[in-house]
Amino acid sequence: MGVARRFDEIKESIVLALDVLRRNPLRSFLTVLGIMIGVTTIIVIGAVINGLNSNVLGNISSLGSTTIIVSKMSWATFGRPSMELLQRKELKAEWADGLAHLTHVVAASPAAQIANYEVGAGSSEVRRGNLRAKNVMLTGDGPSIAQISNFDMERGRFINDVDNEHHSSVTVLGHTSAGTLFPNGEDPVSQEVLLEGHVFTVIGVLQEQKQALGTGDNPQDNIACVPFSVLMKLHPEFKDVILFAEADSTEDLPLAVDEVREYMRRVRKLSSDKKDDFEIMTTDTFVQTWKEISNGIFIVMLAVGSVALLVGGIGVMNIMLVSVTERTREIGVRKAIGARRANILWQFLLEAVTLAGVGGAIGVIFGSSIVLAVRLAFPSFPASVSLFMVLLGVSVASMIGVFFGVYPAWKASLLNPVEALRYE
């Protein structure tokens, strides 16, 4: 019986709280505006990060769980490289042959890319008659790159050993490059294009690549792959070679990494007391880096949302204090007919929680609408509102109501019934 009575009291307090919202709609809206903005921020940022995680981790996984990358400097660092890193010696392409013979390595290949990394685009031009593909990334790849990097072909084939050994003037175009040069649905394979003043025969077209944001043209699709030996002939001044290797299995990846590190230290002639003067990266390296970035973004945006929630909480406290003053006589009447301090405390506390909860619910709806609009505008971007984010938004809003509603409720419960009845 006591539980049923308590439930009825809670139900009555919530009804009273909603009635207060209904009687003062503008004041109530302004009160919960901060909470709405805070919860909307949390929902939208959570959804965007979910989408980014899906795309970025998908791109990383496309490298292959057994891929090992050896380079002069790490790709997973930010800021200006130190002088020590800049003074490192370049890697040599012939070391790929040694990597390929390691026990737990099944394939290895050198690679190089001519691009403008400051703007994230290529710097080459491919022509076919009056048609031009600009800002093309020019890459030189060994035959094993297709196997190591899981390249998917849309048409034709990739570069093979014969192409590399005979310095064949052949190229594999990216999806965007091929579409620019062959806009009318023509088959690019066996057609000729002019690349950096030299005639090349197109032998294949790569499938369209995924990108993190899923909007606009992907620079990785505006690409022209040529045999590694040909790129070195076109750009003998280019020395920034990267080595790719593939472990025989995911389970043996740590063993393969150790073998690659030992081999690189040996060919670099590093003594045991010297640090590595090269970087070894796997998909785990990029996954960990991205997690640090996404966590940092979420923490910053959560802090922004928290400020809005704090402002909203202060608004709730302010309006509840006003409500206590306005309803002083009502409190006196309720106490006069038998209401206890706990009844008054619960009534006003539940009103504050209801007020904040409604703001949180509106914030969830508004935030979800923004995410839906993003999905409609950019269908390839998988932004999604998770149940966790919805529960987090409503829970945080309700806790704001509890925290900022305690003082007004406690003040209301302490009112003297005689003095409250005299209040005008």
Number of strands: 12
Q: Mean pLDDT, rounded to whole units? A: 80
Pick out the low-confidence regions.
none
Q: Portion of residues in helices?
A: 40-55%
Cα separation of the termini: 38 Å
Major beta sheet summary: 6 strands, mixed, barrel
Number of helices: 14
Tally the structural domains: 2
> What is the chain-wise order of helices and strands?
HHEHHEEEEHEHEHEEEHEHEHHHHH
The chain-level structural class is alpha+beta
Structure description:
The model has no long low-confidence stretch (mean pLDDT 80). 55% of the residues lie in helices and 17% in strands. It has 14 helices and twelve strands. It folds into two domains: 2-59 and 289-422, no CATH class; 89-277, no CATH class. Helix 1 crosses helix 2, helix 1 packs across helix 12 and helix 10 crosses helix 12 (341-377). It has a six-stranded mixed β-barrel. By secondary structure, the protein is α+β, with helices and mostly antiparallel strands.
